[in-house]
Specification:
Layout: H1 2-35, E1 39-41, E2 43-59, E3 62-65, E4 71-76, E5 83-84, E6 89-94, H2 99-131, H3 137-165, E7 168-171, E8 174-177, E9 179-181, E10 186-191, E11 198-199, E12 212-215, E13 220-227, H4 228-231, E14 239-244, E15 252-259, E16 264-266, E17 269-280, E18 291-308, E19 313-315, E20 318-325, E21 329-340, E22 344-349, E23 356-358
Antiparallel strand pairs: 1-23, 2-13, 2-18, 3-12, 4-6, 4-11, 5-10, 6-9, 7-8, 10-12, 13-17, 14-15, 14-18, 15-17, 16-17, 18-22, 19-20, 20-21, 21-22
Helix pairs in contact: 2-3
Length: 366
């Protein structure tokens, strides 16, 4: 029993020694890690200062197609997504006159016919009187003018009736019909009417029914807003890189074409509208209404000495960094800085490539 107890005692002492040794070793490593100072290395990097514009992709020329006659949609020749050329038929407006309008048009034709027939008879009688010298040339010419005017009114009333009943007429070799044609070459973006829908004409006192929306998708622009903090830095002609939310990874470039002179309020902030012409899509298919961010390149420095801006201390318009001295010491060094993108800052003087700069100490919050 004594030998057995002695054996257990030896084993316990050995285990205790191992535990104490491991604790001391780990504590030493922990102290070294705590005492280890974090640093950054001065390297050559690219720095790009950008201003952010938030907006969407829009066509330069987008229009609403409207009719100049009333009626209902009788036939559709184009649909959403179709490419059409200027002058191609889009839809036909079938006349849909009220009974009163149709009756009035027919009565106008009858009245014009009676007037024309009456003046024709009178003109025939006056020809005989003129040949006998019973009326003057002036009187006869006035009667001829009245006859021609009546003839024209009769023609107009017939054309109006044909337009109401048939939807098309021909005047002096010109076909006038109720077919609405494309005003420009482009794509149909939106269709607002269907077969049988009523159509209100565009006049000087009413806007008319918007039948379709068309746009030339070859010429696209970015329309967005820039924060007032950045608007003073940008100028027309500056290069831009666009990021479209629906097309991650695609590179689209453009340049600033318009910076508004007037600000507007948006979500309690002051912003300025801007327009950016898209120059290169790299075969990316863009669609009207895509939301996008535009990075307007204000300045760029390639392969310059740079460090993270977080390690720089600014004081009285001067910049300083802390340099390591020995194992635990440090000293402050003045540096001259250049371009910053809010993450990296260019070092013009005071540091060399591959030098090491201390990170700022993180103070515990008590």
């Amino acid at each position: 029993m004594k030998k057995r107890s002695k054996k257990w005692l030896l084993w316990s002492v050995a285990v205790l020694v191992v535990v104490i040794f491991a604790f001391v070793f780990l504590s030493g490593n922990s102290s070294e890690k705590e005492n280890e100072r974090k640093t950054v290395t001065v390297k050559r990097q690219n720095i790009v200062d950008k201003a952010l514009a938030v907006g969407s992709i829009e066509p330069v020329n987008e229009i609403e197609v409207k009719a100049k006659v009333s009626g209902v949609v009788g036939k559709l020749y184009a649909d959403v997504g179709d490419f059409v050329k200027a002058g191609d038929p889009l839809l036909e407006v079938k006349p849909d006159p009220t009974p009163l309008e149709l009756a009035q048009a027919k009565r106008d034709v009858e009245m014009a016919t009676i007037e024309l027939e009456t003046l024709a008879k009178e003109l025939e009688r006056n020809k005989q009187l003129k040949s006998g010298g019973l009326i003057s040339d002036h009187q006869f010419e006035e009667l001829e003018q009245r006859y021609e005017e009546a003839k024209l009114r009769h023609q107009i009333s017939k054309e109006q009736l044909d337009l109401l009943e048939k939807g098309k007429i021909k005047i002096a070799n010109t076909n006038i019909e109720t077919v609405v044609k494309a005003p420009l070459t482009g794509f149909i973006l939106e269709k607002n009417v269907y077969l049988g829908d009523p159509v209100v004409p565009l006049t000087s006192y009413q806007p008319g029914t918007a039948l379709m929306r068309m746009a030339d998708m070859e010429n696209l622009i970015f329309k967005g807003t820039v924060d007032e903090i950045d608007v003073g830095k940008i100028k027309e002609g500056m290069t831009c890189e666009l990021q479209v939310g629906a097309l991650p990874g695609d590179t689209i470039t453009g340049h600033v074409t318009l910076i508004s002179l007037k600000a507007k309020k948006k979500d309690n902030t002051t912003v300025f509208p801007v327009e950016i012409k898209i120059d290169e899509t790299n075969n990316t298919v863009l669609r009207a209404g895509y939301s996008a961010n535009a990075h307007i390149i204000i300045a760029r420095r390639d392969s310059v000495l740079a460090i993270p801006e977080r390690v720089v201390t600014f004081r009285n318009d001067s910049a300083f960094v802390r340099m390591p001295v020995g194992e635990e010491g440090s000293e402050e060094r003045y540096i001259k800085t250049g371009l910053s993108d809010a993450i990296l800052i260019e070092v013009l003087e005071g540091l060399k490539e591959d030098e090491v700069v201390l990170e700022k100490e993180v103070k515990d919050i008590t």
